[in-house]
TrEMBL record:
Pathway: Amino-acid biosynthesis; L-valine biosynthesis; L-valine from pyruvate: step 4/4; Amino-acid biosynthesis; L-isoleucine biosynthesis; L-isoleucine from 2-oxobutanoate: step 4/4; Amino-acid biosynthesis; L-leucine biosynthesis; L-leucine from 3-methyl-2-oxobutanoate: step 4/4. Its EC number is 2.6.1.42. Keywords: Amino-acid biosynthesis, Aminotransferase, Branched-chain amino acid biosynthesis, Pyridoxal phosphate, Transferase. Its cofactor is pyridoxal 5'-phosphate. PROSITE patterns: AA_TRANSFER_CLASS_4. This is Branched-chain-amino-acid aminotransferase. It comes from the Bacteria. It catalyses: L-isoleucine + 2-oxoglutarate = (S)-3-methyl-2-oxopentanoate + L-glutamate; L-valine + 2-oxoglutarate = 3-methyl-2-oxobutanoate + L-glutamate; L-leucine + 2-oxoglutarate = 4-methyl-2-oxopentanoate + L-glutamate. It is an enzyme of class 2 (transferase).
Amino acid sequence: MTTTPTIELKPSSAPLSDAEREAILANPGFGRHFTDHMVTIKWTEGRGWHDAELTPYAPLSMDPANMTLHYAQEIFEGLKAYRRPDGTVSLFRPESNAERFQLSARRLAMPELPVETFVAACDALVRQDIDWVPEHGGESSLYLRPFMIANEVGLGVKPANEYLFIVIASPAGAYFPGGVRPVSIWLSEDRVRAVPGGIGFAKTGGNYAASLLAQAEAAEKGCDQVAYLDAVEHKWVEELGGMNLYFVYGDRIVTPELTGSLLAGITRDSLLRLAEDLGYTAEEGRLTIDDWRRDSENGTLTEVFACGTAAVITPVGLVKSRDGEWTQSDGKPGEVTLRLRKALLDIQTGAAEDVHGWTHHLG
């Protein structure tokens, strides 16, 4: 029977001063600054999870033969804590992130952290560093990054017998600064992000490493993001390098179905349900790149947006490919996109009632 280890609190004796912290919170950016503490939990074969601690944020000491460095046994998650109107703090759907973390661990032959342990670790860190959660308003938040790495030392291709789970946190402003600005997309027709039967559905660094070259090519084309097609027929739209896609046909919204090579985004899932609350028809389906271009040009495809924990919802305004380019929705944010974005943020920040039970309040 798996037991949840008690997290021993060993807080810093020298946290950042109030003035230094407030200066960071005034313009945090994304992923540039980190809070005073972190949570670590070890796993050892034959012993299970143990030595759960909250300690000062600090570098890791790692042997050059650590198996993560050689065989990439690594997974991670991303979720946010929000300040509510009454000053309290809540997390958005941490149990869903914990369940996906287990799915990723299973695929990477790593031990599965119990859901309650994952949530307890996030709670402990946010509770300790609660002053790092930005004030209520806008989309500022405290971004949490739970991750796990192999911690065995040695060379040899096999699952490790030791692992280290860590949670760190970073105050976050808008992922794309400058308000709700439509992004431009480069369509990658020669490179794929993942293949059926592979690790595309797992949230692991290897998938993101595989996207970096195409992302660099997108930047050379003057685009913000890269979109991938399926690996078999090279015609079905899948997802961006780090976000899921949604296509709006009037009152009907469609997102590419999960084929095993796409990440099952928490925001993606939330929007499927939230859209129906707002009176839209929401479904999973398949869309070719020819469908995208044709329907955009004839006006039946009224909006396109990308979504993810970091960016929330971001409209797509321009698509470029080797065969030309087209403008989506006159290059402006669409009504459905903005309505869904506001509805989701209102639930996350406590400005609207959460009828789905997605909000996790700190105990």
